[in-house]
Write a structure and sequence with these properties.
- The structure is a single chain.
- By secondary structure, the chain is of the alpha+beta class.
- It has a single domain (2-190), classed as Jelly Rolls (Sandwich).
- The chain is built from 3 helices and 15 strands.
- It has a 7-stranded antiparallel β-sheet with strand order 1-2-13-10-15-8-5.
- It is globular.
- The model has no long low-confidence stretch (mean pLDDT 93).
Length: 195
């Protein structure tokens, strides 16, 4: 387990939160049992497909909006609730939603952003769980102009807990990796204010 807390970048990385066997079972479950969607985003008035597939599960009435996309929740499955409980026990944080991203190969990606929407409140803790192909994950400071991006390699079965105040001071991304042909599925657990 790796802990890091410097210049308001505060995270815990646990590279084998799930072992290889359990990770394979969970990955196959997610591929075959989640209602994956291909959302669109507007950029300069034009619609574009997101470079990944998504799904969203949460407590009743807990919707989530980002980049002009409003996600209404599918109900929790028993498997997702079991994963959530394990993360909550480990992290000592409470979560009421999970956003799932499915990166079909290295062409699918997520640009630099922060998970800092007002509905997440002032004390934002995000638990990010990875299954499938390992991928680079980058942090970039919002304020430190001279700071070089910091890179973590997120393994199959790993958990990255991004703790407060990371989202207020840092951006993060999953860059393209053109030579990669394998899939990766990421689950990001959040606590969202119920509207």
């Amino acid at each position: 387990m790796q802990k890091y807390n410097y210049e308001n970048l505060n995270y815990i990385y646990f590279e084998d939160f799930f072992n290889e066997t359990d990770s394979e079972v969970i990955f196959n479950y997610l591929v075959n049992n989640i209602n994956w969607k291909h959302d669109t985003i507007k950029i300069f008035g034009k619609k574009h497909n997101l470079p990944r597939l998504t799904a969203y599960h949460a407590d009743t009435g807990v919707s989530y909006s980002y980049s002009g996309i409003k996600m209404n929740p599918d109900p929790w499955t028993k498997s997702l609730l079991k994963i959530k409980k394990k993360i909550e026990t480990f992290s000592e944080c409470e979560f009421n939603s999970v956003l799932l991203n499915r990166y079909r190969n290295g062409n699918d990606y997520h640009g630099y952003h922060s998970d800092d929407e007002p509905c997440l409140g002032n004390q934002i803790n995000i638990a990010s769980l990875s299954f499938g192909a390992g991928r680079d994950f980058k942090f970039k400071s919002k304020n430190l102009k001279e700071s070089r991006p910091k890179t973590l390699f997120l393994n199959n079965g790993s958990l990255l807990l991004m703790k407060h105040p990371t989202q207020a001071f840092w951006l993060h991304s999953l860059p393209k990796r053109m030579r990669l042909s394998s899939e990766r599925i990421n689950l990001t657990f959040r606590l969202i204010d119920k509207l």
